Amino acid sequence: MRSERVGGAVTWGLLGAWAVHDLEELATVPWWLRRNVPELRKRFPRVPEGVWRWAESMGAAEFAAAVGVMGAVVGTASAAGQLTGGRSGFYQGALTGFGLHGLMHMAQAAAVRGYTPGSVTAPLVVVPFTLWARGRLRKAGVLRPARPRDAVAGLAAAGAATVASHLVARRLLRPARRPS
């Protein structure tokens, strides 16, 4: 493999693709949840009730704050990628997690047989960007070999970052307690 330079389109492109995708989610998640959770609760009775209660309790401000927290994570991953010429394990893991996240959106839309937030940009932006960026990393000779455990780790990290961003958002938006 010949070694080529990995440019900002590959590394900072992760942040850009993520921003496009999350703009769709920002515009659709709050109303979509209000409209669809009651029906989803009936169609998918095996989903724990706590998941449905959490989804119903999430407001637009909390979701926007969680997106901001996740943006900081993705921005940090992109910066790590830029600083290392794409070699950063954190960057490559975030890229893998982002692509798998896109596939999850597509699977969700298939499961509900309709639109779900993120399902438009997943096949148009998320998956194509991920494949293109991985191709550029491979061409530059810096892509780590793909292993099933890396895919699992990427999905787990993306899931953990999502949960953490929502927990931070709830904490940030919780009314301050006044001393009694």
List strands and helices in order, with pairings:
Elements: H1 8-43, H2 49-57, H3 60-83, H4 89-112, H5 121-139, H6 148-173
Radius of gyration: 18 Å
**Count of discrete domains:** 1
Class derived from helix and strand content: mainly alpha
* N-to-C CA distance: 67 Å
Number of E strands: 0
Show unreliable segments.
none
Strand proportion: under 5%
| Number of continuous helical runs | 6
Helix percentage: over 70%
Global morphology: globular
- Major sheet: size, sense and barrel closure? none
Mean pLDDT: 90
What letter string, H or E per element, gives the SSE order? Answer: HHHHHH
Structure overview:
By secondary structure, the chain is mostly helical. Helices cover 77% and strands 0% of the residues. The protein is globular and about 50 Å long. The protein starts with 7 loop residues before the first helix and ends in a 7-residue tail after the last helix. The mean pLDDT is 90.
